[in-house]
Amino acid sequence: MEEYNDIPYQHSNGCSRCNSPEYEPGYPFRLCKACRKKLSRYPVKKEIIWAAIGIGVILIVSIFRLPGYFKAGVGYMKGKKLAEEHKYVSAEKCFKATLKEFPDHTGAMLNLIIASYFNENEAQADSLLALAGGKTIPSDDEDLQAMLNIINEHLSQSDIQDTLVARMLADIAEDTAAYRAKLDSYVVAAPYDLAAKTALAYTYAELKNYTLADSLSAQVIHEAPLLRAAYYERLSALRDLKRYKEGLQLAEDLLSQNTESIQALMTLTSFQLRLNMDKQALITIKQAAALAPEDNSVLFMTALACHYNHQQNESDRILTKLRNRPDADTGSIALLQNFITDKVSYKN
Amino acid sequence: MFIPGPFLALVTFPGVIVHEFAHQLFCRIFGVAIFEVKYFQMANPVGYVKHEPVRNPVHQLLIGTGPFIINTLIALLIAFPAAIPVFMFSEGTILDYLLLYLGLSIGMHAFPSTGDANVLWQTLWHGEQVPIWLKIITVPIVGLIYLGAIGSFFWLDLIYGMGVAFGLPILIVKFFA
Fold first, then answer.
1. Most CB within 10 Å of its CB: which of A251, A279, A323, B24?
2. Hey, which residues 90-149 in chain B have their CB within 8 Å of chain A?
3. What pLDDT, on a 0 to 100 scale, did the predictor assign at position B1?
4. Does this chain's domain A157-241 share its CATH topology with A243-348?
5. ipTM of the predicted structure?
6. What fold does the segment set A68-155 form as a domain?
7. What are A84-117's pLDDT values in tens digits?
8. Fold exhibited by the domain A157-241
9. Hey, are the CB atoms on A4 and B123 less than 8 Å from each other?
C-alpha cells in the first residue's frame, strides 16, 4: 500500500504523452492540460465498481434500518442513565421504546422490571419477571443483578408466605377481630414474613390503631428499605397520627428512591400542605403534573395546592375539568369542592 | 502470533482496495496525473498508486494521508448500522456481520504506509519552496505514520480498525444518550 511520485521518462520537448508543445508550466512532469486531466481520471476497475455497488446496496438496506436502531440504542443508554438518576418514569418510557425495536433484549427487559417496580406497577414488574425467567442476567452488571434480586424478593413478599395461613385469613376476612388475632399470632410465629407484618399494619390502621400500624410498618421498612408498600402504609399512619414532620421526612426518603414517583410526589405534597409549606407543595405537585398531566389524583392535589397558593381561578378550572370527566370519582370531587371552598379544611 | 503481511492483507483486502482508492481520489481531486494503480496484489507492497510529483506540496500531504481520512470515514459509515444491533443488542444478522467485517478491514488499513511516509518526507521536508509551517506539520505526521507502522507489529492497525468499526458507533450512541 504505497504511492510513488517518481518522474518517468519524458519527451525532450512538449507534453510527455502527446508531444504537444503547449504543456502546463510549473510541473516537474511535463503534460498538457488535457493529458493531465485525462491521467488524473485514471479509470477504476469494473470489478471494483461492481463490488462497491454491491456493498452500497447492503449499506442502503442497513442505513434504512439505522434510524430505528439508533433511536433504540440512544433510548436504552438514556434509560440506563435515567435509572441511575432514579428517574424511573422517564426510564420506563425509554426501555419500552427499546423493547419495541428489540423485544428479546434482556438488558432492556430487566431494567424495565426495576423501573416498573419503582413506578408502583408491581403487576407489570411481576409479569415481566415471569417472562424473563429463562433469561440470563448479564453477569458483568452486578448492580443490576443485585437490584433485581431485591425486587424479586420484595415482589414475592407481597403475599403471605404460609399459604395455609393465607387461605385461613381469606376465609375470616369479614371478621375483623378474628382476622387481626390470627394475623397477630402468625406475625409472632413468623416475624420474617414482611407481607404479613404489612397486612397487620393495614389491619391496625383500619381499626384506627395508628400507633401500632406505624410501629409495624416502621419495622418492615427497617428490614426491607426498598419495600415501597410498607412506606405507604406508614405514611398513612403518620398522617392519621398528625406526625406530619416525620411523614414529610419519610415521603422524601421514598421520593429519593424514585424522584419521579407520582404517588410519592402526591404524598409529599399532602404533608407539605399540612405543614403549611404551600409554595413547596405547589412546586412538588407541578412535578407530578408534568409527568402525569391527566391523572385524576394529580389534578385533585393540584387544585388543592393552587387553592392554598391563592390561585383560585386555576383551582376552579381544574375542578370543572374533573367534573366533566366520566371516570372521575364523584365523592372525591365533592370533597375537593368542600376543601377549595373552605367548607372543610384539608390541613386538619 | 506472526501473520505475514500479504496474508493478513488478503483476509482484509477490501481495506487495501479502499486505501489505494483514497490515494487515487485525492490525485483526481487535485488534478495529479496517475500512471498506474494496483488495487491489490499478493506481493509487497500489496497495492500502490504511481502518480506524478505534485506542484503544490499541500496536495502531497493530502494524497499521502488520504487513506487515513477516507478509510476511517468509510469504515465508520459501513459499520455504524451494524454495530448497534450486534454490540448493544446481540441481535445481528449475517448482513450485519458482513458489514462489520468490511468496516474492520477498511478501518485497519487507514494508516498510511511507510512508503507513503517516505514520499511525504522527500516531497515536503526535502522539497524546495515548501512553506515552513508545512515542514513543521510534516514532522509529527511522518512520525505518527512510522509509529503506526511499528505499532502494527503489535496489532495497532487491527486495534484501530476495531475502534473505528466496533467502538466508535457505540461511543456516538452514548454521546447522544
1. A251
2. 90-91, 95-96, 98-99, 102, 109, 113, 115-116, 119, 123
3. 43
4. yes
5. 0.82
6. 1.25.40
7. 999 999 999 999 999 999 988 888 999 999 999 9
8. 1.25.40
9. no
